[in-house]
Amino acid sequence: MSEQRESMGRVIGVGGLFMASPSPGETIAWYERVLGMSPNDYGGFDFLHGESARAFPQAARTIFSVFDETSDYFRPSSQPFMLNLIVDDLDAILARAEAEGGEQLQPRENTDYGDFAWLLDPDGRKVELWEPGIVVKKLGQPVPLSYFIAEVNSGRSHPAQRNTPSRFSSFRALLKDRSVLSRRRTS
Known about the structure:
- The chain has about 190 residues and is α+β, with helices and mostly antiparallel strands.
- The chain has six helices and seven strands, in the order αααβαβββββααβ.
- The chain has helices at about 1-5, 25-35, 50-55, 90-100, 145-155, 170-175; strands at about 80-85, 110, 115-120, 125-130, 135, 145, 180-185.
- The longest helix has 12 residues, at about 25-35.
- The radius of gyration is 19 Å and the shape is globular.
- It starts with a helix and ends with a strand.
């Protein structure tokens, strides 16, 4: 009975985030152009949990956190919240943002759990971009997963990929072999 009671009447995930905007069309277009997001038929954006779980198994989660109202973590935005979006290639998104006239709010941070950068959307909301810190460890040296994906997709070879077994010839095969993934270590 207690097991049944524990599974009833509790939150099991975030079903959506809904924001007001003075120019919804402009804001949606910015997220599409700059962040590479594709709007759904209703004008919002869907994130399928399976997609992030396949790419970043340990990062496939939603953080729900409350900060003290005096925190400056959300600045320079005046909004009382910030979006944190998981990305697969932070460098590509930052290059696209720069090409669109955007600039990073503060220096990029590289941590043992990933790389972070911050932008403001057209409505002044702070957007934190997070590329989880997962590397391919059997390649002889730490290689960011996004770099490996780009190299595999382009058919080019990263020096760390020389003499690697043929099972690494596709990214899908790599993800099926969970033993090759590890948390990033910073030096």
